Amino acid sequence: MASLFGDEDDVIISLQEGYEGWVICQYPDCNQQVLIVQLEEHLLSHSATSSDEISDLEFARALQESEDQLISAIEADYQLALSLQNQETTYTQAKPNTQLATADIAPRTYSSAAKPTNYQTRGNSNYSYKPSPYANIKPGSNIHSLSSVTSSVKGKGRGEGGYTAQTLNKLEQQANKGAITSVDLHFKKLEFMENLNSGKDDLNSCTEGVLQSMMHSYGLFSPSWSYYLSLDTPHFSYSLGDRGWGCGYRNIQMIIGSLLMSDKYRVVMNRTFNGNVPTVPRLQELLDEAWRAGYDPQGAKSLGYKVRDTKTWIGATEAAVLFRSFGVKAEVVDFIKPPGSGNTHARLIQWVEDYFKRSTCITTDLPPVYLQHSGHSRTIIGWSQYRSNKYLTILDPMTYPDKLRKCVQLKERELVWLLSRISSHFYKSEYQIVSITGLIESHKKESYKIISPIQRLTH
User: Fold this and answer.
1) Do both 101 and 215 map to the same domain?
2) Which positions fall inside the UFSP1/2/DUB catalytic domain (predicted)?
């Protein structure tokens, strides 16, 4: 993984391999410059070679004081990275003992991270720095609070702040509760900032291989299920930054992930994403850009023409805007259930069945379908029938990735029940779906900027 400030060969911070900084050993009369990831081993060597046994407290003090140097360096690097991102400045390469020259930012010398002349690379190690078991002995001073950073990125919308502010606040809360150490906190912030600037989702909440496991799990039932499944689709769940409001974006990520694996849609999707599923903030930026380009002016006005750095909920219309701006046909269908019509949305279930049964194969080449109702949205990846009951196969952003990954790995019946929703489950008064129906010809793009339902179906 490339660092924030240079190429892999000149890593100052490498989030895959740990922090490659050098600190001064605080063991009495040592003062040797030591690679941070080798610090604990170095301190243990003092104990092994000393005629006097080093106490746990003395060991902890030396280790903690050295780790404090690391934390200070990480804090400075984090603040610099945030400044660069806020000013939309291009990162320039920086080598040890050189300065990072950037417009309107004071140059900074990385002398504290300089490599000694006898430096030897650790090769392709996947070493990840972890604090020592003595790290619970607190240093004399506290780590700087980043409350000023989170307050500076608060935006409009439901609640305070957007994805960035919520992520930073949640990480701070974890550190305050002792769930993560101070060093881990700063590593997580650096990793978050790198992903944010790249625009590529870190895939930490992504689960792949769902449909392959579903096909195996269906075969475990007797009598067997009748089923149809969409294109292969990754599942994306909430993360720290969008829990409680980001379901629309997560479902859009699922569909984007599916289209990127489709022979029909891959080329046009790669023009925007280059093979990578975008982050939630990147999707917010793209929606803002689509509105500025004239897509769905009525919807843009109702949401204040801006969702970036907000927690504003989005729905089916905004999903259709995004896909159309990518060059993909996205049609909205409304399903309205009149009062007294019973507890099921028969037309919704029938529409999904007809959609998937257009294929002659149970594993179709059809994209998944975006499903919206009041307060939440999900992704439909299939239709099935077991005995006399009909089901929609659903990927829900609220499903915890650990639970889903376990079911996907085991390929047992539980996976089918986890993702299947019987027809009586769809009892809301109204639903909307967004279906992907093809590619937009370049000369017809203007005609797709106005979003309106192609059908309004009642029970």
Assistant:
1) no
2) 228-434
Catalytic residue from among 186, 235, 396, 407? 396
- 249 and 132 part of one domain: no
Compute how many other C-beta atoms are within 10 angstroms of the C-beta atom of residue 48: 7
Catalytic residue among 144, 376, 425, 459: 376
- Residue-level pLDDT at 340: 58
Token pair of 73 as six digits: 């360096």
Span 34-54, average pLDDT: 59
When comparing pLDDT for 211 and 127, which is higher?
A: 211
- The backbone torsions φ and ψ at residue 290, rounded to the nearest 5 degrees and listed phi first, read -65, -40
Residues 128 and 211 both lie in one domain? no
Measuring CA to CA, which residue among 440, 395, 418, 83 is closest to residue 295?
440
Does residue 379 sit in the same domain as residue 300? yes
396 is catalytic: yes
Residues 301 and 399 in one domain: yes
Contact 331, 454 (CB under 8 A): yes
Give domain status of residue 451, yes or no: yes
* Residue where one domain finishes, among candidates 136, 151, 180: 136
Helices (H) then strands (E): counts for the chain: 14, 14
Is-contact 97 109, C-beta < 8 A? yes
* pLDDT bucket at 131, cuts 50 / 70 / 90: very low
Is 263 known to be catalytic? no
The more confident residue out of 9 and 391 is 391
Select which of 25, 206, 247, 407 is catalytic.
Answer: 247
DSSP H or E run through 433: strand 430-439
Report which of 350, 339, 379, 392 is spatially closest to residue 225, judged by C-alpha positions: 392
Confidence band for 359, pLDDT divided at 50, 70 and 90: confident
Contact 250, 376 (CB under 8 A): no
Q: Is residue 360 part of a domain?
A: yes
**Which residues lie closer than 8 Å to 328 by C-beta, 6 or more apart?**
259, 265, 268, 269, 436, 438, 439, 440
Q: Does 443 participate in catalysis according to the annotation?
A: no
Residue 172 inside a domain? The answer is: no
Report the C-alpha gap between 334 and 435 in whole angstroms: 11
Residue-number span of the structural domain to which 373 is assigned: 207-458
